[in-house]
Amino acid sequence: MTQPPHPPPGEPPEDRPSGSPYGSPPPAHQGWGEQGQQPHYGDAYGDPYSWQNQQQQQPYGYGQQPQYGPYGGPPGGASGGTNGMAIASLITGIIGLFCGISSILAVVFGHVGLGRIKRTGEGGKGMAVAGLVLGYLGLVGWILYLIVVIAVAANHSGSGY
């Protein structure tokens, strides 16, 4: 038995027509485009970048939105910033949970920071309040700890051991 000669690699076999590997050309797809052409990107729903070329319109009568300064800051470029005393109050409040003297500083910085925030309109009210809460919690915790230590020491020294 002789086998028919094989075509070179990449060539279609002799019994199939050249073109499509399945023997028939792909069907012409006519749908969205005109004259058998595929639609361009975004044609089915409109140009996705058209909003950049149009004048901005505010729907539903909301009016003009304020223009922000560089880097998304508040309008007019005036930035209140965060009060430094509020930051110091928060940091010393966290440290005060582990070291008692810092709790006193957290309370002082928190009250001073809240006063400045009211007067100047700076940001950081939440930090100042958090620093005050942590400072007072630290103070109460350390006072209770000292009371327990003194009570245990007094009880232990009176036992005669």
Automatic annotation (TrEMBL):
Residues 1-76 are annotated as: Disordered. Keywords: Membrane, Transmembrane, Transmembrane helix. It comes from the Bacteria. Residues 1-11 have a biased composition (Pro residues). The chain crosses the membrane at residues 85-114, 126-154. Residues 85-145 form the DUF4190 domain. It comes from Actinomadura gamaensis. This is DUF4190 domain-containing protein.
